[in-house]
Amino acid sequence: MTNHPLRKYRERNEITLQELALKAGTSVPSLCRIERRQQTPSLALVARLIKACKGAVTAHDFFEEDAR
User: Fold this and answer.
1) pLDDT digits over 24-60, tens only?
2) Three-state DSSP string of the chain
3) Per-residue pLDDT at 67
4) Which of the listed residues 31, 44, 46, 60 has the most CB atoms within 10 Å of its CB?
5) How many CA atoms lie within 13 A of 46 on its CB side?
6) Is-contact 21 30, C-beta < 8 A?
């Protein structure tokens, strides 16, 4: 499985989980689960993550294709 776009964004921009969690108003464990695709975030959290990443990730990045 490829890296989650959220993780790719963090690595490209040298942002730690802690920094992104603070910007998005969530916890580090939650971000870890999202990046490992073990947790689907709420729509509110998706919106905060998109804002924290300055639009570099999209809502589509957080939802499984087969869930449609």
Assistant:
1) 999 999 999 999 999 999 999 999 999 999 999 999 9
2) CCCCHHHHHHHHHCCCHHHHHHHHCCCHHHHHHHHCCCCCCCHHHHHHHHHHCCCCCCHHHHCCHHHC
3) 46
4) 31
5) 13
6) yes
- DSSP count for the chain of H helices, then E strands: 4, 0
According to DSSP, residue 67 is labeled: G
> How confident is the model at residue 68, as a pLDDT?
41
Give the domains, in start order, of the chain with CATH numbers. 5-67 (1.10.260.40)
Which of 50, 27, 36, 47 lies closest to 4, judged by CA? 36
Angle (CA) 51-28-30 rounded to 5° is 80
